[in-house]
Amino acid sequence: MSAQAFTTLSGPAIPMAEDNIDTDIIFPARFLLLTNKAGLGKYAFHDRRYTADGAEVPDYVMNREGWREAPFIVAGANFGSGSSREQAVWAIHGAGVRCVIAPGFGEIFHANCQRNGILPITLPAEQMADVMAAAQAGTGFAVDLETQTLTMGNAAAPIHFDIAPGAKLALLNGWDETAVVLNQYGADITAFERAQRATQPWLYPEDTAA
Amino acid sequence: MTAQTLYEKLWNSHVVTQLGDGEALLYIDRHLVHEVSSPQAFVAMREAGRPLRRPGTHYAVVDHAVPTRSPRADGVRLGTIADAQAAAQIAELEANVAEFAVPYAQLDGPEQGIVHVIGPESGFTLPGTTIVCGDSHTTTHGAFGALAFGIGASEQGTVMAAQSLRQKPARTMRIHLTGTRHPFVFAKDIALAIIGQIGAHGAAGHAVEFTGEVIATMSMAERMTLCNMMIEAGSRVGLIAPDDTTFAYIKGRRLAPKGAQWDQAVAYWRSLASDPGATYDRTVTIDVSALAPQVSWGTTPDQTLPIDGVVPDPAQIADATAARQAEKAIAYMGLTAGQSLDSIAITHAFIGSCTNGRIEDLRAAAGIAYGRKVASGVRAIVVPGSAATRDLAEAEGLDKIFVEAGFEWRLAGCSMCVAMNDDRLAPGERCASTSNRNFEGRQGPGGRTHLMSPAMAAASAISGHIADVRKFLA
Ligand code: SF4
What we know:
The structure holds two protein chains of two kinds. Chain A is α/β, with parallel strands linked by helices. Chain A has one domain: Aconitase, domain 4 (Alpha-Beta Barrel). Chain A has seven helices and seven strands. In chain A, β6 and β7 form a beta hairpin. In chain B, β13 (294-296) and β14 form a beta hairpin. Chain B is of the alpha/beta class. In chain B, the strands form five sheets. A five-stranded parallel sheet of chain B has the order 5-4-3-6-7. In chain B, strands 17-16-15-18-19 form a five-stranded parallel sheet. A four-stranded parallel sheet of chain B has the order 11-10-9-12. At the A-B interface, α4 and α7 of A face β1, β2, α2, α3 and α5 of B. The site of iron/sulfur cluster has 14 residues of chain B, from α4 and α12.
């Protein structure tokens, strides 16, 4: 499950000025019966993007000229809250989104983004108002992960954002985290298990199983 | 040594190695697996040619996609599932657990049920452990003093192969519950009241620990309800220190430690409670004495009010964002500002889910249903959280009380909590529900959900509208 590397990105930003956009809105539960990761882009925000008979809702932002397949989303607080479904991330990735900017995220969604080459940027509420206004105006966004900067339009002063160093490295390199953990820390994990087995033997049913 | 909170003890005892900048590689003791979130993780294992590091530390079940009815008289579901996608998803899980030798609570078997109900029931959930699952309501298991949190499918793949995850510690938040509650105010009401007060992201970034006299008197079922709902306040972790109630619940369960190991385990578990003087980043104190039963009116779980309240008027809400969200929710929910909550007519009642599908919940609902009838025009279903809960309820005669009153008595599963099996709402239908999420479309596209306790849902089913269960107190 190696992710794509993330370095720089530019393009328009889809404005979603609403708090608590949950993963049921991003990827309705009934589509969870699909077991693929690929091809989920058409289900992103499905029940808002399409009517019950499958026609596009013309005034929904993702269906409007200028924001179709835009690579950024700018959202309200607590974006991606609710269910842990990674399909929410695979779906917006499939719809072309590579960066989401919000004042806060559902924590599992946030971790899922970083595992799949999507950069989640958290900005303080004071800065979000300008960012949302720029998105609504159709301004072009540009982000550089290496320098941790976000630029809107021709603004002279880019906005700085924070990211955990481990997540930054993983995104920049498109690392498969499982491989990294196994290759770099295998011996540490074995040592941990040896110590835990000695003090909490009940956690090792494999030692007593017939 | 400095005084530590329960969270800090659980965290520190699972650090494999520090990764710098506050991050650590955290050892994962237990992994619960269900059919919906796991397929892609097994694919990753297969594609990379990786074995499961410790197969015995995983436990799999089918719950989300399974129907809760069977066309067969003996209740067997396997082989009868009409929905081809659901059948395929279940078959895929069965193939995966066979290939990777993962212990499995099979459909129609005695331990099948909702993942967060069967973990505790089987003794798989133990204090002092780290537990993950590809499911956000993994918070439930924190009721045992376990560090339990939901993860995505990619992370599941890492746990399967490496039994560990890169994590950043959360800040800590203490929710201290004081006072004595009304007999018809349950853990669900307290959870909804907390979320209403602190907001749907009020605990984001924090590991919540519940303390106080209210917790001390709660059953494990109520503690699980409370921790289960903390994800609806934005927290990935809800915790309660293990005590004698916890140990009494665990003792003798199939996977619980036995003999000398039991004594050794209990001695260790007693050491997990937060030290006197330990500090939290935040503390919220709530007196439950004046609390009324709660009901959600909107489409986020913090859009919740006491049952004697009315649908809010967006024009009266000062905060512009909150006003806009209220307006949107009222429109989706088909309500009118100022309408009394206890006058809202319902079409469905759902008693079940990992929040309120345990035996104590069924007893509370049956207590209201006893000798009464479901209102005409209401479809009411009772879905036990597990096969074991269902068996116990039948032994107590609860099924007969429900059926007599006009409720449908179902087989175990997630059912109408999530619109991915046969039990779902049609657009515009309205449900009094004991589940945990009132999101748009959660129970079916266009469906309308009101969250409440099992006693309240039963009272509403009987009344035909959302009802104050306190009026049923004989
Ligand atoms: S009962 Fe609902 S919340 Fe619980 S695991 Fe099932 S779908 Fe998720």
